[in-house]
Amino acid sequence: MKRENILTGSPWEDKMGYCRAVRIGNIIEISGTVAIVDGKKVRADDAHAQTLNILERVEKVLEDLDASMKDVIRTRIFTTDINTFDAVATAHAKFFKDVKPTTGFYEISKLVAPEYLVEIEFTAIAAEKPLIQEGL
């Protein structure tokens, strides 16, 4: 089966040897994704805005892989503060209210930098890409 890697150009991709997402067949795995904290729209103390930022960016990654948020079957949400549950859940529901993927919500001691409150991993199963047959 063909493997498609989605790279973002982040220096961490080569440093760590990973990519944002991998699609093999109709299975898509998306690496743990944190928000782009800009201090204005997405602040280090706003778990809701961070979650929305993550979901908006992942939505684009899925589109690049000919899939959508409707194809997501699982999310894994990591937070440094379990008390952010309501803020994160509200943002998650904005994208997944009708899709309802399985999920887990885990408090961990730290993420890669202190400004990150939330990191989310995704699994999706997309429709098979049609085979292009020569001469048709």
What this model shows, in words?
The chain has 136 residues and is of the alpha+beta class. It is built from three helices and six strands, in the order E-H-E-E-H-E-H-E-E. The chain has a six-stranded mixed β-sheet, covered by helices on one side. Helix 2 (47-64) packs parallel to helix 3. The longest helix is centred in the middle third of the chain and has 18 residues, at 47-64. The radius of gyration is 16 Å and the shape is globular. The two termini are 22 Å apart. The mean pLDDT is 93.
Structural class category: alpha+beta
Mean pLDDT: 93
CA-based shape:
globular
Helix content: 25-40%
Give the total of beta strands: 6
Q: Please report the number of helical segments.
A: 3
Catalogue the unreliable spans.
none
Cα separation of the termini:
22 Å
Index terms:
single chain; 136 residues; alpha+beta; six-stranded mixed beta sheet; 27% strand
Secondary-structure topology with pairs:
Elements: E1 3-6, H1 11-16, E2 21-24, E3 27-33, H2 47-64, E4 72-79, H3 85-96, E5 102-107, E6 118-125
Parallel strand pairs: 4-5
Antiparallel strand pairs: 1-2, 2-3, 3-6, 4-6
Short description:
The protein is of the alpha+beta class. The chain has helices at 11-16, 47-64, 85-96; strands spanning 3-6, 21-24, 27-33, 72-79, 102-107, 118-125.
